Amino acid sequence: MRILIFLFLNTLAWQLNSQINFYKIYSGNGYDRAEGIVQKEDSSYLITGSSSSWAGDSDAFLLHLDSLGGYLWSKNYGGLESDGGKRVLYNADLGIYVVGFSNSWSSSGDYDAFLLKTDFDGNELWSKTYGKPNAWEKTNDAIMTIDSGIVLVGETLNTSSANSDIYIVRTNRNGDTLWTKTIGGEGKDIANTIIKTNNNYLIGGHFFVPDSNMVKGFVIEMNDLGEVLRFDTISDKSGNYYVSDLSMGINKYYVIGYREVGVDKDDYYGVYDISGSLINHYTFVYPGYNTQLNQAAYVSVLDRVAIGYQSINPGTNQDNYDLSMAYFYSENLNYIAPVWSAAITNYGLDQFNDLIPTSDGAFVAVGFNSIIDDGIEQPNGGSNLFVAKVGPDNTFPNAFGAQLNQLVGLSDVSDLELIEVYPNPFFDLINIKSPTNKNKKINLYNQIGKCLLNKTFSGQTTLDLSSFPTGLYLLQIENTIHKLIKQ
């Protein structure tokens, strides 16, 4: 009996362990990108980003996944123009906040910073925009304050000069503006990331230095009144430097980014004490090997720093940036001997947009991939979002052959199930008949995912495919895919 109990417990432990890592992809019929993620107290996840899969131009969205990456619900937000989410913030007492961009409500068509609040089921409660006349505002990161307000950071772009300044907005919990801060000079000055210290905020990004005609990274320390306490330049060697992300550790913080020299990009790693004094930094130079460090998170349970980055290896047949994740020693971010690393090598462009520690002592990352190809029949209309969860024992999810999951909820596409597509197989003509006269978009793809035809129809229509060669085609009508065979 003891042996049976031992075997049962070991089997159960293996099953539980196998469930705490996963790689999931979600998409509809459009361009879908995951930009931000948070974990709730029940270990489920809320993801935001931008999507054109609901209809028309892009919308901001919320996607709620269970602890294993399974679909719970998704909802879209925005107006008639382009809207997108960049970060999602969660407060167990107040609800969910989505921070991003919008040009749906600007009288002049400019882009504004965007803040939206929903209840715990994703139902919109209110939305507000922030911006200046004759300028485009973009949010790159945001955090909640001690009093449950929000600080948004990004850039404001002057539409007449193409120069941008660092743009910071502090709101209360109801989205009312408490103060706005603009910092910059000539060229492009952009804030990419914000974290909290005990009493203040650290903001990272890059700015143009006219004297040297170079771009340098920066870290700004700012108090809750918007007063700049220090402005530190981040660089190691000659070249343009960019700060991608900051992460707070124990009595220190971590700065990651990259150096750009010509077409080459090199990793930048920095460790600083809480006062901003340099502990250790370096630029990893590998000629021809382009690498950009994207996101970082301190994992306190392991006392390690998780970093997600994208790279191109000139020694392979790689088509575009692939992704890697790695743990680094928290003392110095020793790039020569990372504790652990693993790669995601999909077709097309892959990009990390957010990475956070998880309650089980590991981390999860989100981003997008420009091509879906599982080797069978699942190309989508544009790009897909991914969610990659690493296990606490460094178990890396298998990204190869991941199945496409539907981003748009079934309740939004139920009428599409009644559409008739015939005959199939076909010779020359395909007939499409809808039970309603509502406009619907059509995209036709070949076997490698290339779009061959797109149009809008209502009621019914006929496609003349007589000039197309025989073979397999994928007909996408809004959010449904029909496999067609031409004889």
Helical fraction: under 10%
What's the structural domain tally? 2
Query: Rg from C-alpha positions?
Result: 24 Å
CATH superfamily of the largest domain: YVTN repeat-like/Quinoprotein amine dehydrogenase
Q: Would you state the CATH class of the largest domain?
A: Mainly Beta
What's the CATH architecture name of the largest domain?
A: 7 Propeller
Taking the sheet with the most strands, its summary is:
5 strands, mixed
The unreliable regions are 1-19, 373-379
Instruction: For the largest sheet, list the strands in their spatial order.
Output: 26-27-28-1-29
The secondary-structure class comes to: mainly beta
Q: What this model shows, in words?
A:
The protein is built from one helix and 36 strands. It has two domains: 16-411, YVTN repeat-like/Quinoprotein amine dehydrogenase (Methylamine Dehydrogenase, Chain H), CATH 2.130.10.10; 413-486, Immunoglobulin-like. It has one helix spanning 2-18; strands at residues 22-27, 32-39, 45-51, 59-65, 71-77, 83-91, 95-102, 112-118, 124-130, 135-144, 150-158, 164-171, 177-183, 190-196, 201-209, 214-222, 228-234, 240-248, 252-261, 264-273, 278-284, 290-299, 304-312, 322-329, 340-344, 350-357, 363-369, 384-390, 404-406, 420-422, 429-433, 440-445, 451-457, 460-464, 471-477, 480-486. The strands form nine sheets. The protein has a five-stranded mixed β-sheet with strand order 26-27-28-1-29, with no helix packed on it. Strands 2-3-4-5 form a four-stranded antiparallel β-sheet, with no helix packed on it. Strand 2 and strand 3 (45-51) form a beta hairpin. By secondary structure, it is mostly beta strands.
